[in-house]
């Protein structure tokens, strides 16, 4: 292959590489805007560094198509690994983000969210806070969203909790070591088994609770009573605030 053909091929691969990284950068921006995801920032920084490297190579007259192709492959692998590692975090606020974050959690989580999790927050929702930790190997991830809402909406969730809860725990009584002995807090829906040594993990459930704890209750919809590999579904209701939780 003569030098002219090499140069043409190198230029074409440079353009393809630039367009490819531009598309990935656009996806990074969407991750940042819609989810507030830290992964989006990391991919954006990687893309900027790569673009600077490409510009530097171009200025020096280095347009080898094989080198450009190698950079594309490395970029794809690096961006993919960034999305797999557990440092992902998402925006803590912004109720309008809830549908997007819920969909993202459903896509990444090892198990689907409970069917009772709403697709959207109620119209009266405000001061929304969310938190998410992805499942990592055998570790249990969780997703939670809390918001202030109208008295009517609170009453609806309170009634929902009373109808479906297996355990009802006053929020003020939870233990700070992130576990709670459920004995004595069962409802008629609880499985009749020996609960000695069993725990309901409530620390993470209440971690982003912004409301007054007095009078608020944790309605545990489902639990495996396992502290080491917990799987819990719950809703906390009280004092004009609702919080949804699943792990």
Automatic annotation (TrEMBL):
Transmembrane segments: 20-52, 72-91
Domain of life of the source: Bacteria
Keywords, comma-separated and alphabetical: Membrane, Transmembrane, Transmembrane helix
Entry protein name: Uncharacterized protein
Native source organism of the sequence: Ruminococcus albus 8
């Amino acid at each position: 292959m003569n030098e002219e053909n090499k140069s043409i091929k190198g230029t074409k691969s440079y353009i393809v590489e630039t367009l490819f990284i531009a598309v990935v950068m656009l996806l990074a921006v969407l991750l940042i805007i819609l989810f507030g995801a830290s992964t989006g920032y990391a991919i954006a920084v990687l893309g900027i560094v790569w673009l600077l490297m490409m510009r530097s190579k171009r200025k020096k007259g280095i347009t080898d198509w094989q080198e450009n192709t190698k950079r594309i492959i490395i970029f794809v692998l690096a961006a993919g690994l960034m999305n797999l590692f557990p440092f992902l975090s998402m925006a803590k606020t912004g109720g309008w983000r809830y549908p997007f974050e819920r969909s993202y959690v459903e896509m990444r989580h090892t198990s689907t969210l409970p069917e009772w999790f709403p697709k959207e927050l109620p119209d009266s929702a405000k001061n929304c806070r969310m938190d998410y930790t992805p499942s990592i190997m055998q570790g249990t991830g969780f997703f939670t969203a809390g918001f202030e809402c109208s008295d009517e909406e609170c009453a609806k969730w309170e009634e929902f909790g009373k109808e479906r809860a297996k355990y009802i725990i006053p929020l003020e009584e939870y233990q700070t070591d992130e576990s709670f002995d459920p004995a004595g807090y069962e409802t008629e829906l609880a499985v009749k088994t020996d609960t000695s040594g069993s725990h309901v993990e409530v620390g993470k459930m209440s971690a982003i609770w912004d409301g007054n704890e007095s009078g608020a209750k944790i309605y545990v919809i489902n639990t495996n009573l396992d502290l080491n590999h917990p799987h819990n579904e719950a809703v906390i209701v009280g004092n004009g605030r609702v919080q949804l939780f699943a792990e």
